[in-house]
Amino acid sequence: MNAIGRFAPSPTGPLHAGSLVAALASWLDVRARGSQARWLVRIEDADTERCLPGMGEHILSQLADCSLLPDVPPVWQTQRGALYARALEHLKALQLAYPCGCSRKDIDEALAQRGEPHHRHGERVYPGTCRDGLHGKPPRAWRFAAEQYEAARTSKRLCWSDRRLGCQYQDVAHEVGDFVLKRADGPWAYQLAVVVDDADQGVTDVVRGVDLADNTARQILLQRALGLPQPRYLHTPLVLGSDGEKLSKQNGAAPIDTATPAAAVRALNAAAQVLGLPASNASTPAEALSGWVEGWRALYNPRP
């Protein structure tokens, strides 16, 4: 089977230094596997409220300026709702999805009553309030019955291997709870959409930032429940802002400058150094990219 990798940005703002690291890493991982491997770009615009008009096209233009060109035309999540709906119906049929009427305030109050208050940056572990019914509340979301699904497993801790981080563990039912598949306002949740998309596109290797590593166990549970293949995972280092937090659009990350080939090479050089690759003296992005393929192969030994 030929390797397939992907870069899946959300069009909530332009590419910045942190997102370029993920794009470069996923591109190099594919190119290091040989001429038959394919690199895809998927615009993750399912959360329409956060996405900006025209930003998906702008991101594709930035990638093209850096010579990071997908092997097939990009896909857009807003055009794939029927796939997600089928997956949700399948989970309902398996009794692994149920409606939830809880707001965030409801969840916080329930957790506080249990002596488990939600902390900033911490996981809001769903207490299972609607697991046995809505109790007269209107449905606000559909949730995956993680506790029910994991109850049949011998070990409650799900184990998976990351190509950079090694063995990883998470007890999803205890550390996350029954997580959202579709929100009350309509958009599909990231966890379901990414699992369905990766399987539908034949993705064999997911290379993304380490901030998303915590999502992996949830996605593996969904893959198993839906009978979908599990890709290999590699989570890259993050670029940090001046406040020590992950560089993001929320904390003022500046867009990368790709106005000229020289500017694009500078942006790529910064991303390459985060990945442990040497700076390039190339004059064009394409030349710089080709020079890093062997270095990536030596660092991560990607398989075909």
Summarize the structure.
This protein has helices at 17-31, 55-65, 81-93, 104-113, 146-151, 172-175, 190-200, 216-226, 261-274, 285-300, and strands at 4-7, 38-43, 75-76, 97-100, 141-144, 158-162, 166-170, 180-182, 205-209, 232-236.
Structural overview:
This protein is of the alpha/beta class and 304 residues long. The protein contains 10 helices and 10 strands. It has helices spanning 17-31, 55-65, 81-93, 104-113, 146-151, 172-175, 190-200, 216-226, 261-274, 285-300; strands spanning 4-7, 38-43, 75-76, 97-100, 141-144, 158-162, 166-170, 180-182, 205-209, 232-236. It has a 5-stranded parallel sheet with strand order 3-2-1-9-10. Strands 4-5-8 form a 3-stranded antiparallel sheet. Helix 1 packs across helix 9 (261-274). It is globular. Its cofactor is Zn(2+). This is Glutamyl-Q tRNA(Asp) synthetase. Zn(2+) binds at residues 100, 102, 126, 130. Pfam families: tRNA-synt_1c (PF00749). One of its GO terms (molecular function) is ligase activity.
